[in-house]
Write a structure and sequence with these properties.
single chain, alpha/beta, Rossmann fold, five-stranded parallel β-sheet, 7 helices, disordered N terminus
Length: 219
């Protein structure tokens, strides 16, 4: 019960401190050079750089780690604060001109907060995936949610990602591992929601290991 209360309080605080002016990512994307491949990182404000330097978010750290290991990739940070699967579906066409080789999709928190039906969640994610060419490698982040809306909804929500991965050949399903960082005080900023640089380090290490293990990267 205490954990549920904390989650709801965090959601309220996040909404309160996020103005509409900050809902969209207004940064200018630096496109990849002819020699580089492109990774598109889709997530909400958790992949931004709130209270950390822009070089400390997970896309920047991932790009640096790839370069250190001789992988020539440009990682585009396409975050949008308070993003939802509906919202992402409506603007996915904006990202097609980047011709990404790999797309990392993380979408869940704000859909759960608004009690989106799992049928709509699945439909939206499939629509997003199918907007990209079949040659695009899709890394779909499997996500878990609290049980405050009931165990049935939680199980159905979790199963959406597994069902999608079974239906599409170009899907790589990465396990949920945010529980390793979310509730660790020293890995979060003062709002206890958004990550600090150390949080991003852990996420990047797990993501990089997954990309290597699944042989998704090319040199």
């Amino acid at each position: 019960m205490k954990k549920i209360f904390i989650l709801l309080l965090m959601s309220f605080l996040l909404f309160s401190c996020t103005s509409k002016d900050n809902w969209t990512n207004t940064q200018t994307w630096n496109t990849a050079s002819e020699q580089q491949k492109t990774i598109l990182a889709l997530w909400d404000s958790l992949t931004a750089w709130l209270w950390v330097d822009s070089s400390d978010n997970y896309p920047s750290k991932l790009e640096n780690l790839l370069a250190k290991n001789w992988y020539n990739y440009k990682v585009v940070n396409a975050w949008v604060s308070w993003d939802t699967s509906d919202w992402l579906k409506s603007r996915v066409w904006l990202y097609l001109e980047l011709n990404p080789d790999i797309v990392i999709i993380v979408i869940w928190w704000n859909d759960w907060l608004r009690w989106l039906s799992t049928i709509d969640l699945k439909s939206n994610i499939i629509n997003i995936i199918d907007s990209f060419p079949s040659s695009t490698k899709i890394v779909l982040w499997w996500m878990d949610i609290p049980i405050n809306l009931g165990l049935k909804y939680r199980n159905e929500f979790k199963n959406v990602y597994k069902e999608i991965a079974k239906q599409r050949e170009n899907i790589y399903l990465i396990d949920y591992f945010l529980e390793w960082v979310w509730w660790v005080r020293e890995l979060n900023n003062s709002d206890k929601i958004h990550p600090n640089s150390a949080w991003y380090d852990i996420v990047v290490k797990n993501l990089y290991d997954f990309l290597i293990k699944k042989d998704i990267l090319e040199k």
